[in-house]
Request: fold
Amino acid sequence: MNFNFPVPSHEAPTAIRRERSNVARLAVAQALAGANSTVVYATGAVVGDMLAPTKALATLPVSVFVVGMAMCTLPAGAVAQRYGRRATFLLGAGSGVLAGLIALLAVLNASFPLFCAGTFFGGVYAAVVLSFRFAAADCAAPERRPRALSAVMAGGVFAGVIGPQLVTHTMNLWAPYLFAATFVGQAVVAALSAVILAGVELPPRTAMHLNAGRPLAVIARQPRFILAVICGVVSYLLMNFLMTAAPLAMKLCGLPQESANLGLQWHVIAMYAPSFWTGRLITRFGASAIVAVGLVLIAASSSVGLLGIDVVHFWATLSLLGIGWNFSFIGASAMILECHRPEEKARVQSLNDFVVFGTMTVGSFLSGGLLSSFGWSTVLMLSCAPLLGALLALIGFSYRPGRTTKLASRGEST
Reply:
């Protein structure tokens, strides 16, 4: 992975080296920490199906994972505002270790509530991990922020390999407890991520960052912010909605767990591999255009899934879904960077993530019941309405490029 961003010659070499080191560390941490989410998605519905009192609750552990993400975002933003992002990173990694250990105890004791508690802490960790992208933007000059943001997201490519392979090679090691060794590995990987994050050198906080800034209600009324949140919500909602149901749908279709693991591996790789280019594409064509392409690709993934229930259909659906999420979510994140002053960043970014993850919880809760009651095709078809709404929002929210950024810097709202 190349972290040698082109920089102006007048910038201090020390600052440039620090920026590149921070982005590299955050990308490595993203690769390690991203395996946490992959493990939960690969095992959550399957273990839930084994432990839940009814089949309709099979995807509840994944839904609880999303609840953990939603509930953590605003507190994480408050901690980052008060004590700095590094404190938030280490608290998140600690939650990742707890997630693996609690899930291990749940499997050993056949406890469904305990397993849900483990996935909750996994969600807390995942919410903190998603703030890595904004931390990378904090470390870079304004003109390099989309590149830094996408470079860290590119670390997820390796998470796409680490997570599924961790599941595949450990799930049967602790017989007869399926996935017990996997959750031990999940805790170890989270601890290693904490070691990497401890070396990140972020810009120092000042009194301005603690006390200044406009009220969130003023910022949230900006059309550009509203559009960014809508696109972020829809992209993450549908990605989670379909990815939560896919492993269980493959099982119900008689496909082996190894095929589901490999499908998730390609899905996560597809989620993050485009990040090597997404920042450049945003810089060249604009965030809105990249978001639109991403939403169209998510629609294509649903269409492919409706063509059949063979392994190739599931894999193609998950791969297109991942690419579409990458374009639409990173594009929406780049829009958020245009909507706040430096001293407002932690509060605004955490508000955005709270809305995204909070709404995503709805899709996660619905996916299991809809899959059990109506089947995989219905789950796919229901994704059309949110996609259409987001595309119409992109068309309807007209704005002049660059205007929002200038107004935000002066403390005005659009």
